[in-house]
Amino acid sequence: MSVTPIRQPAVDAGALDVERIRADFPILRNVHPHGKTLAFLDNAASSQMPQQVIDRLVRYQTHEHANIHRGVHTLSAIATDAYEGARRSVQRFLNAKEEREIIFTTGCTEGVNLVMHGYGRKFIGAGDEIIITHLEHHSNIVPWQMLCEEKGAKLKVVPIDDRGELLVDDYEKLFTERTKFAALTHVSNALGTVTPIRRLIDIAHSHGVPVLVDGAQAVPHIAVDVQALDCDFYAFSGHKICGPTGSGALYGKAALLEKMQPFKGGGDMILSVTFEKTTYNTIPHKFEAGTPPIAAMIGLGAALDYVSAIGLERIAAHEHALLEYATEQVTALGGVRIIGTAREKAAVLSFYVGDVHPHDVGTLLDEEGVAVRTGHHCAQPVMQRFGVPATARASFAFYNTFAEVDALVAAIRKVQKLFA
What we know:
The protein is α/β, with parallel strands linked by helices. It contains 14 helices and 15 strands. Helix 2 (51-64) packs antiparallel against helix 10 (294-310), helix 3 packs across helix 10 (294-310) and helix 11 packs parallel to helix 14 (402-419). The longest helix is centred in the last third of the chain and has 22 residues, at 312-333.
């Protein structure tokens, strides 16, 4: 089944050559198990990996593999240079002031937990307050709940309106003399809402409160400059921006990182160890205990270099056009409720088809070769706010096409027909 597009967006001279880019992604040439052409629209869960990143991983595993930092032999030196080179790629990508402000993690979740343990457990106590938002992923809720339970602190939540936008005035009213930390999302994974993060950071800083930003859904779509944002911490995952799973990074201002206690103990995070006392290593190594996922971090560096070469501004423009087109097409179907209509959105379309459970929607879309995510998206408070148990979520990347949006709309129409 096909759908005649209502309006194909105009393409300007600076537009991406999407077909050329798609040639870099081997999986996009796959035929779906149901015999359909694959339309991969589940990028908010995990993006695909270009051949350039795959080749870099293979090169390391085939020709460069060795443990890092402590070896004096040639392979160890080569692996160490590649690993630390990836750290410099992250520094450039985020425009961090210093290389040592970049800590490698297994993903955004570990980054948040590192700050909770390293900063929160040291500096937050009984009666103190932590501010989060109603938009948060579970990974930026649960660690702070754990800390509050341990310390006797209080969690305060910024509400959202019916569009899925933060109520900034209410946010500002939450601050008291007991507010000690704010952990805020940059982009909602469930709704695509882009928060006014610089304004939120400025408000927190006016009260002397440091801010952690969950950037997992922002870095694939928005150029992030941590110095311009003036955030205190910024965490993201590699697998959402064309990198390997098990890769990610946490940016932290050096002065804060130096004050924090280590998250994990072990090798490489120490300068000296006796049975009486351990002296910790300098940052960032103080927070990178044991043998890290070396290949994954090298792959992360390659992924960020790949995306940077394309250009975040061009990526954002293409994805915004996809989102506008998809929103228009899905709205024109009738009987589909779009959950999250913020004026500033990343390329996420979360929706509910009539009275059909999203899991059924996702299964039927899969039969048409369209891969979307269904469920609560690890954001159950968001679902509760909108009175739904779950949604179907299409999330776009720079390698997606308008034809794939048409395939999504055609599949939704088929769901409507089947359940009519």
